[in-house]
Amino acid sequence: MHLFPFDPWLGVEPIFVDGMMIRPALDDAIKQDAIKYLPETTLPSLLHSDGSPVVEVNSFITFLRSDGVSLASAGHYARDLQVFARYLRDVRSKSLLDASSVDVGKYRSLRLEGPGELRLSGSSWKRTSAALTRFFQWAASEEVRLISVAPKTRFRRDGAVAEDTIRMIPLEDYILFRDQGLLDQGQASGITQRRNPMRDAAFAELLVTTGVRLEEGASLLIGELPTTNACVFQGSRTAMIDLPATITKGRKPRSVPFPRRVAGNFIDAYVREERSQLVDRWRRAGGVRTMRQPLIGTLAGGQRVLIQGEQRPRSLATLRIDERRNLLLLPGSGAPLESAQPAALWLAQDGQALTPAAWQSIFRRTSKKLSENMGWDLQVSPHTLRHTFAVYWLTHLIKAEVKRLDGRSVPDRTEEIYMKVVSDPLRRVQRWLGHASILTTEKYLTYLDEAFELVDQAAEALDSRLMGFF
Known about the structure:
Helix content is 47%, strand content 9%. With 470 residues, it is α+β, with helices and mostly antiparallel strands. It has a five-stranded mixed sheet. The chain has a two-stranded antiparallel ribbon with strand order 1-4. Strands 2-3 form a two-stranded antiparallel sheet. A hairpin with a 6-residue loop joins strand 8 (304-307) and strand 9 (314-315). Helix 7 crosses helix 12 (356-374) and helix 8 (197-210) packs antiparallel against helix 10 (260-284). The longest helix has 25 residues, at 260-284. The protein starts with a strand and ends with a helix. Belongs to the 'phage' integrase family.
């Protein structure tokens, strides 16, 4: 069983043997029409050793994407199911759909207590368990009915083995990573001739100040972030920006805070300088002819785009992630193709949209090189910055709530201290992060050095005011 990222366009390109074309490319008009019906590019797909598709897993992955699961998470689920299916075949002589509760239990023991090379961390098993649970629940659902009863996939002790995986860094360490690692300021980093330092620093600033997920930030289009002179910043240091449901986890749109400082000092500067150079280089290299499956369109006002061959403009918010990566924008109706530019905000050296995997690699290489030259370990990933955002904002909002309550002249005796001091900030950060459950956000509380002291401080302040009312 083998895992591949789905690429429908490999099947429509010309085939050459010894320099002779034995099959021509598919007609461009047919390809353009086929875009509507083909699965997403890079969608994880499993094949048996004989080349036939693993229908049940591929159908499940397609279902996950329709249910709002990110491409990255869908890929993790596919790999977890692939490994479990191989275990069933080689050790239990069973297929995936024949798995029993005993099989899952044996597999759990192997991955948590088996030989070192097979053993998973608690958090990795938690993800594997989630993949198995969701797959078998889907397979046993009334709509699918591939199996009659789902095997047991969760065990009483699973909560004890899943260690906390929240990793955040102090803001001082982040600034070091940004300035000496990504921007290469000073001589300490030893990283020379970075190709796009402004781009990389701008992306890091976006993550650490908005808390967006890697795939969400990587999927933004040019113009979706307000410039420093935008009216949304009128009289304010921060504006709320909208993330469309098509790029968010769970397919739920949400709004996040976006600082004017980041727009002016980072995003605008990157777009004006580095991105414009990347677009020019892309055009000189062939532009639209380098794209395998371009969607060519013209902005129609009101965050809408008119795609060539379509009758009505679409809202940019309705574009899928793969469509965003392949969208090219013309400056106006009737403009030549040579004037088109990629719509993606974040561009690689070849002018193509940067993938989440490419961003992971940039952060990993920068962390490694900076650690080597600084002489101490500094590991920063895109998700680290999301955690840092959460911990910082919870600390700030709890402090603000303590100050607000402490300044009241007439306290409200019906309010619970915890609910006001902790729960209100938690729910705000929950909305910004896009967590479905408040329990996920609550994990960050253990990383607030001052959280419990602040709660005690608020309790003391309110108690002193309430004493005269009882």
